[in-house]
């Protein structure tokens, strides 16, 4: 995983050429603006993810979708707890010992949870695609068990992958102005480079998965819309006049279909900009092809897109609310709100818990 401190030079693996100390990155954007933004993100993230975790602990894991969402909320909570250390480090308020902790632990956890979220976004996209193409296909206990084992395997794989980054970041800082790579052994630098390549494969593989799945979803929803439109054009439905204004089924269905694309929107807003910004930033740090101003620009671009990745921790609750009926039902019961609350947002009417069987994927609505 990538390592960041407020040191004035690069922390990317494979970067053996030191950035000129005069090309300082300690500007108001890094030392003031981003610490303030991350502080706000910390407060909002603790609130939203605290509520989300509390609600999910009350929901049984009866669908693939809920299993994936539970893993994401755990990853978001861990990511949120890494924000205070980044705030202190970036604002130059951290001691040398705390900055070492940022290099060894908190930054590793931040990127660990980012790529866990990316992997589960890919799995959610596959699940949404399956539900769209085969809406009446349920699940069973053995499939749920396999999804739980898969979730455990993902966490284990990434923990094993990033653990050497913690162990091999063991050198003593050469001075108070150090970068994370200064703390790494030779084997640590090599392993860190390997991890970055693996993370690139994870992102680009899941990007392709998300794009393919939502292309298929879009095609299927368009076919469904065309069929509905042709049926509507084929006859006129007579209804008794009513004083009560209600949303038509077609409008509600369009609202529900639009909600499905929240996963796609969050993925592209949070993860795509950072991984595209990493390409020129890595080149600027590993090759002498840019001057100081461009290096500083790419660093600020990387930090800005990294903040977008951090937004994932507060945008994910939108997915829980809009796409998971069990989450809404449990939340409304806890807050003692009527079942139809916020139906104008979700596109659904009164959402009374109908006692769906636990082996049906009824928790995730499309």
From TrEMBL:
Q: Does the keyword Iron apply?
A: no
Q: Name one Pfam family in it.
A: 7tm_1
Q: Any idea which UniProt keywords this protein has?
A: Cell membrane, G-protein coupled receptor, Membrane, Receptor, Transducer, Transmembrane, Transmembrane helix
Q: What is this protein called?
A: Purinergic receptor P2Y12
Q: Does the keyword DNA damage apply?
A: no
Supply one GO CC term from the record.
Answer: plasma membrane
Which Gene Ontology molecular-function terms are recorded? Answer: G protein-coupled purinergic nucleotide receptor activity
Instruction: State any GO BP term from the record.
Output: microglial cell activation
Give the species this sequence originates from. Seriola lalandi dorsalis
Q: Please spell out the taxonomic lineage of the organism that makes this protein.
A: Eukaryota, Metazoa, Chordata, Craniata, Vertebrata
Q: Which residues cross the membrane?
A: 36-56, 68-88, 108-128, 149-168, 194-217, 256-276, 304-323
**Per the database record, which ranges form the G-protein coupled receptors family 1 profile domain?**
48-320
**What topology does the record note for this protein and the membrane?**
Multi-pass membrane protein
Cellular location(s)? Cell membrane
Q: Which domain of life is it from?
A: Eukaryota
